[in-house]
């Protein structure tokens, strides 16, 4: 029940006039400092609403014109400008210079990874691990055309047996059976010799006959012991890495009809900065030479 406002004898403060069962409520004033802070926050909020976008109206800006979106846009523009500057540096450098400069190298590895996922992974696998049917692994030490930065750069730029690039890697292995250079028995013997290079020949006399045929027909590209030749892109035949399969039937097929795997020339399709970044990235995968 509201009663009369009176002064409390003990504290000297007014009561509010409310009383319950004889207990009266004091009207204690707020501490001064609290009150001033409270007024200050109100004033701050008022100024804020004028200066910054605070009203729930689409497109509203304060007097300063600042918006979170605008700030982000500026930040992105600054970032892309920095990126353009870095790309220009990488474009003007050789792959070796890019790899030697820690800042350019870090940028190239990140950019190369993205470009690889977009452009190369379909054939070479997401991690460059290669795929069956002639798509070589780029993540091992086994290189068809050389694993140095310069060699990798050249292969990416000009491709392999690419018909729209005059500087492409162009070696063609003959189709020994199809072109009538060897008959079926001779192809079988040569395949037996190729198997013997990895200790897998079943027919020693055939492998011996094949060894003579190999020296005559194959050694110029694959090396006299099948050790391969990067000038020709002729793969090693004395290791466990096979582009087209290492069983006898696959080897016979490779000899009889040849394979002639092809890779597009990327120099005409990609920004030179991207080709440089890809070379550095691919080199980092395979350890390189
Ligand atoms: C259409 C499929 C295809 C695409 C896409 C492709 N490649 Fe290739 N790449 C090949 C084939 C096939 C070979 C092997 C050619 C041969 O038999 O010598 C090869 C070979 C290579 C080699 C040489 C490997 C060695 O052992 O010397 C490099 C390096 C390479 N590719 C990098 C790339 C990069 C980087 C990209 C992306 C820009 C790419 N490739 C995209 C099919 C492809
Ligand atoms: C003009 C060079 C050249 C000559 C000569 C040549 N090759 Fe090749 N050979 C290659 C190239 C390049 C490849 C890579 C595959 C391709 O054609 O794309 C290859 C691939 C192969 C492969 C498949 C390897 C794999 O990893 O799957 C076999 C097997 C092979 N050659 C055996 C022979 C034999 C045996 C002879 C002789 C009868 C021979 N080659 C003669 C260049 C040559």
From TrEMBL:
GO biological process: proton transmembrane transport
Keyword Oxidoreductase (UniProt): yes
GO molecular function annotations of the record: electron transfer activity; heme binding; iron ion binding; oxidoreductase activity
Binding residues for heme c 1: 120, 123-124, 263
InterPro entries in the cross-refs: CcoP_N, CcoP_N_sf, Cyt_c-like_dom, Cyt_c-like_dom_sf, Cyt_C_IC, Cyt_c_oxidase_cbb3_su3, Cytochrome_c_Oxidase_Subunit
Cofactor note: Binds 2 heme C groups per subunit.
Cofactor(s), names only, from the UniProt record: heme c
Transmembrane segments: 33-55
Positions annotated to bind heme c 2: 173, 218, 221-222
Record-linked Gene3D superfamilies: 6.10.280.130, Cytochrome c-like domain
Domain annotation Cytochrome c: ranges: 107-198, 205-286
Location(s) in or outside the cell: Cell inner membrane
Keywords: Cell inner membrane, Cell membrane, Electron transport, Heme, Hydrogen ion transport, Ion transport, Iron, Membrane, Metal-binding, Oxidoreductase, Repeat, Respiratory chain, Transmembrane, Transmembrane helix, Transport
Pathway(s) it belongs to: Energy metabolism; oxidative phosphorylation
GO cellular component terms listed in the entry, alphabetical order: plasma membrane
Described purpose of this protein according to its UniProt entry: C-type cytochrome. Part of the cbb3-type cytochrome c oxidase complex.
Oligomeric form and interacting partners: Component of the cbb3-type cytochrome c oxidase.
NCBIfam families named among the record's database cross-references: ccoP (TIGR00782)
Family (UniProt): Belongs to the CcoP / FixP family.
Protein name, UniProt field: Cbb3-type cytochrome c oxidase subunit
Name of the encoding gene: ccoP
């Amino acid at each position: 029940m509201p009663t009369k406002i009176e002064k409390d004898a003990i504290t000297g403060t007014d009561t509010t006039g409310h009383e319950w069962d004889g207990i009266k409520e004091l009207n204690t004033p707020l501490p001064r400092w609290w009150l001033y802070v409270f007024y200050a926050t109100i004033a701050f909020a008022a100024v804020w609403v004028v200066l910054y976008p605070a009203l729930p109206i689409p497109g509203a800006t304060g007097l300063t014109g600042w918006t979170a979106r605008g700030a982000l846009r500026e930040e992105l523009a600054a970032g892309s400008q920095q990126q353009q500057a870095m790309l220009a540096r990488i474009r003007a450098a050789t792959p070796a210079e890019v790899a030697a400069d820690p800042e350019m190298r870090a940028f190239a590895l990140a950019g190369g990874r993205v470009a690889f996922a977009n452009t190369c992974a379909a054939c070479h696998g997401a991690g460059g691990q290669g795929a069956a049917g002639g798509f070589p692994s780029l993540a091992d030490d086994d290189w068809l055309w050389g694993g140095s930065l310069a060699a990798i750069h050249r292969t990416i730029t000009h491709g392999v047996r690419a018909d729209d690039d005059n500087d492409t890697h162009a070696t063609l292995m003959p189709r020994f059976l199809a072109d009538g250079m060897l008959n079926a028995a001779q192809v079988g013997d040569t395949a037996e010799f190729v198997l013997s290079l990895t200790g897998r020949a079943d027919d020693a006399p055939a492998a011996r006959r094949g060894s003579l045929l190999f020296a005559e027909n194959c050694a110029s590209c694959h090396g006299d012991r099948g050790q391969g030749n990067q000038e020709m892109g002729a793969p090693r035949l004395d290791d466990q890495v096979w582009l087209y399969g290492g069983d006898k039937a696959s080897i016979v097929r490779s000899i009889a009809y040849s394979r002639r795997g092809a890779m597009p020339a990327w120099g005409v399709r990609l920004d030179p900065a991207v080709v440089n970044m890809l070379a550095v990235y691919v080199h980092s995968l395979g350890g390189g030479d």
